[in-house]
Design brief:
Elements lengths: L2 E4 L6 H13 L5 E9 L5 E9 L4 E7 L3 E5 L4 E3 L2 E3 L2 H19 L9 E7 L7 E5 L6 E2 L4 H6 L14 H11 L2 H8 L1 E2 L2 E10 L2 E8 L6 E8 L7 H20 L13 E2 L4 E6 L4 E2 L10 H19 L13 E3 L5 E3 L8 H19 L2 H11 L6 H14 L16 E2 L3 E9 L3 E8 L4 E9 L5 H11 L10 E7 L4 E7 L4 E2 L8 H20 L12 E4 L2 E4 L6 H4 L10 H6 L2 H17 L10 H9 L3 H4 L1 H11 L11 H4 L5
Parallel strand pairs: 1-2, 4-8, 5-9, 8-10
Antiparallel strand pairs: 2-3, 3-4, 5-6, 6-7, 11-12, 12-13, 13-14, 14-16, 15-16, 17-18, 18-19, 20-21, 21-22, 22-23, 23-25, 24-25, 26-27, 27-28
Helix pairs in contact: 7-8, 7-10, 8-9, 12-15, 16-18
């Protein structure tokens, strides 16, 4: 692409098309000056359609939009049989005038460059033109040969051919005069100065520019629409509507993070310009992800989700998800520079997840990258959920992922915070350890689980919910994360002293009923927050004196395999029940199971559980409690959102 400096406006479509072709096809070290005037010795100015300062010479080009069959001779020309002007004579005359001025102006010791005239016959945008020259040496060319004639040695008519050096080019510009001023004028739009062309297509241009009102500068982007450069007027109007629509969207989104500031539209009669503040940072495809910390990646994802959420709340979609349309700043700021609003919100979310998935994977946080994988596959999305998870991880810390598997053994350090001390329980897919918090020097319970990725959304929801609530009979979650290089996760919780329900020494019926009542209040609290345990069994209930605590929400299913109340229930009824009814069934069945003497236990089926309950004296449990437990074991309880569990089981406030 040659450097193009326009001294005036093209007078017709042929000139406009010819200048675009020359500017696009000539080498970048060529200089194209269009509609320039060259003064003669008499002071009269002669206008030149195009002046090309090239590798072998200086070419004075006259552009003709002839259509048809052109017969060109040394003296006379005809177009489809009728006489037309010999344009080459005029071009050669101007070339001789320019050569004379160069010889008088050029400094001593520098040879004047060769100047020659040339005619460019365009036809209708390169078509519908036939050229017949009586002499092959005549410098008359159609679009098929014009570029070669200007760039190859054979196109020169000089008896001795020499390449033009830099000093000769400078002498040409100095002779023409004010070229730099004209270039500066062409590159200035009000107080914006064009610096570098980033995109160029017929009628559409994108420039890197600076705003320079005097005393200070600021970087900007200029989106320029030149209606006269479009082949069809309707196409120009369509692009103008799009540019005006983009300006209106940017104004509507003013104040949203991630949306660049735009100045008012500029329309000077020849072009329509939309100035947009230059985004800070680098395009997302140039971001060096491997050099960023986990917290920097999380901050980028959080800011991107926040910006997209604000944009969607104003009923606008981004649409422009090409890699060069997203910029990431040094502070993690995400900016969208091509807001089109031409797709649905669901599709916008899918493309967001697809574009940012590599960053999410680099965090090694399952609760984050599984969200992006799910949404990129088109399986629903909740930006608020993602933002909550990102904020929680940034605030509470993350588990640093390791390149290799973390060994689970006595003395191992987990997440740089917890040292494993003693294994309490082991199963095929989970382990429970007593661990020490290194900084605080207090005991914690730490469980390790092997999980399947499809189970993660539910586990993530459980952790996110539990980390924000408190109940004295519900485990207190301290940390949660992925063990690097594997499919294992860990959960650290406050150490609950005591033993599992099936190992507890029962002192009195009142003690057992007290545990049951505490856990019932905990379940009612959790259920009203849409949190369900899903794995209540004797091993997941820790008892200590007069206190009982629920553990392992939604985790450690293998721990519950031998004790989980679902195995006692009718599988057909179990499959039809809701989460709340299942939790109540698990609570009731766990207590009935551990309280029934071994000699009175029957089979593990629903009939056996009911026979075990029948062995109890209703007066020992209480008539109301006994009756409600009977209904729960038979799945005859239909709960509603406003049900109070305590009166249902016969407990007073």
């Amino acid at each position: 692409m040659a450097k193009h400096i326009s001294f005036g406006t093209p007078v017709n479509d042929a000139e406009r098309w010819a200048f675009e072709l020359l500017g696009d096809e000539l080498p970048k070290d060529y200089l194209l000056l269009t509609n320039i005037e060259i003064p003669t010795q008499s002071g009269q100015a002669m206008e030149v359609d195009a002046l090309v300062v090239g590798e072998w010479g200086v070419y004075v080009i006259d552009v003709k939009g002839y259509i048809g069959r052109l017969n060109a001779g040394l003296h006379a020309w005809s177009l489809d049989g009728r006489e037309v002007d010999n344009s080459l004579s005029k071009a050669n005359y101007v070339a001789r005038v320019l050569a004379g001025k160069l010889k008088n102006k050029i400094p001593v010791g520098v040879y004047a460059p060769w100047c020659q005239g040339m005619v460019f016959v365009t036809g209708h945008k390169g078509e519908a033109i036939e050229l017949e020259k009586q002499d092959c040496a005549l410098s008359i060319y159609t679009p098929r040969q014009i570029i070669a004639a200007l760039t190859k040695e054979w196109g020169l008519t000089a008896p001795h051919k020499h390449q033009i050096n830099q000093r000769q080019k400078e002498a040409v510009l100095d002779t023409l005069g004010q070229v730099a001023l004209v270039e500066q004028r062409n590159n200035k739009i009000q107080d914006f100065i064009k610096l570098k062309c980033l995109f160029l297509q017929s009628g559409l241009e994108v420039w890197q520019a600076e705003y320079n009102p005097g005393g200070w500068t600021a970087p900007w982007l200029l989106k320029i629409l030149i209606p006269t450069h479009f082949e069809q007027l309707s196409e120009a109007r369509q692009h103008e509507e799009r540019l005006r629509g983009e300006f209106q969207r940017l104004q509507k989104l003013s104040g949203c993070s991630g949306v660049p500031y735009s100045a008012p539209l500029i329309q000077d009669g020849e072009q329509l310009v939309l100035p947009i503040r230059m985004p800070r940072g680098v395009p997302i495809h140039l971001l060096e992800i491997e050099r960023l910390s986990i917290y920097q990646l999380l901050e980028i994802l959080r800011r991107g989700a926040t910006s997209l959420s604000q944009i969607h709340r104003r009923n606008i979609c981004v649409g422009g998800w090409d890699e060069h349309c997203l910029f990431i700043g040094d502070d993690g700021e995400v900016e969208f520079i091509d807001i089109r609003d031409d797709i649905s919100i669901d599709e916008d979310l899918r493309r967001y997840a697809e574009r940012f998935l590599p960053l999410a994977l680099a965090t090694h946080q399952p609760r984050i990258y599984l969200w992006f994988q799910r949404v990129a596959a088109g399986r629903g999305a909740d930006l608020d959920e993602l933002r909550a998870d990102l904020s929680a991880l940034i605030e509470t810390g993350v588990c640093d992922s390791l390149d290799s598997d973390t060994e689970i053994a006595e003395g191992s350090i987990i997440d740089h915070h917890f040292r494993l001390e003693e294994v309490i329980y082991q199963a095929a897919h989970s382990e429970l350890w007593r661990a020490t918090h290194l900084q605080g020097q207090f005991d914690v319970g730490l469980s390790v689980y092997r999980f399947l990725q499809q189970d993660w959304p539910g586990l993530n929801h459980q952790y996110r919910s539990l980390s924000r609530i408190y109940h004295p009979n519900v485990e207190r979650v301290l940390a949660f994360g992925e063990l690097g290089g594997s499919d294992r996760v860990f959960i650290a919780r406050a150490w609950e002293r005591g033993v599992a329900l099936d190992c507890a020494e029962i002192q009195s019926p009142q003690q057992v009923i007290g545990w049951f009542r505490q856990l019932l209040t905990a379940l009612q609290y959790l259920h009203r927050l849409d949190i369900f345990h899903s794995a209540i069994c004797p091993k997941n209930i820790i008892c200590n004196g007069d206190s009982a605590v629920l553990l392992n929400f939604g985790l450690g299913q293998d721990i519950a395999a031998r004790h989980y109340a679902a195995q006692y229930a009718d599988p057909d009824l179990w499959a039809l029940e809701g989460d709340a009814e299942r939790d109540l069934y698990g609570l009731v069945a766990s207590f009935i199971d551990v309280l029934t003497p071994i000699e009175l236990k029957g089979d593990a089926g629903p009939a056996g559980m009911l026979r075990a309950l029948d062995a109890f004296d209703p007066r020992w449990l209480g008539e109301s409690l006994f009756a409600m437990c009977y209904k729960v074991l038979r799945f005859e309880v239909n709960l509603t959102d406003n049900d109070d569990y305590m009166p249902l089981f016969g407990f007073n406030s």
